[in-house]
Specification:
This protein is α+β, with helices and mostly antiparallel strands. The chain has two domains: about 130 residues, Ribosomal protein L10, N-terminal RNA-binding domain (Alpha-Beta Plaits, 2-Layer Sandwich), CATH 3.30.70.1730; about 40 residues. Helix content is about 55%, strand content about 15%. The chain has seven helices and five strands, in the order αβαβαβαββααα. The protein has a five-stranded antiparallel beta sheet with strand order 2-3-1-4-5. Strand 4 and strand 5 form a beta hairpin.
Length: about 170
Amino acid sequence: MKKEDKSLLIDQFVETLNNYPHFYLVDVTGMNSGDTSELRRECFKNDIKLQVVKNTLFEKALERREEDYSALYDCLKGNTGVMFCTTANAPAKLIKKFGKDHGDMPALKGAYAEESAYVGADMLDALCAIKSKNELIAEVISTLEGPINSVLSQLDGGTTIHGLLDAIEKKNS
């Protein structure tokens, strides 16, 4: 491969990394073409971009970025597929579900999700449990809404503010 072609590929990887905040490194060794096609279809359905990469070129792309990806460099060996995504836990759930029917393939090598590096297949459950920013915001709003809704329902039920404050005072005593 010519140096210009390599440079172009590295630039494309950097651009892709700029567009997707999370990525997973998976081992695609041993997957036949049918399984690979099925995995690509599942990725497409879940808004995940799957790309098989040359390890050294992808590592050079990571080195051009400001983030520290050094923990993931050891994962860049063998046949590596990269799953790029905007939702941190989507690839983990897909890998877990797809692996049940396909002999634990693809195998997780490592991931960069929510500004943290995860190395090893044993991190799959932890990655599945990651909540997205929108899920966390919804939880906070739900927690804050509870007391407000309680007060509003009391007031709608005909309770006066004075009566409501007396009930709160008795409850806290």
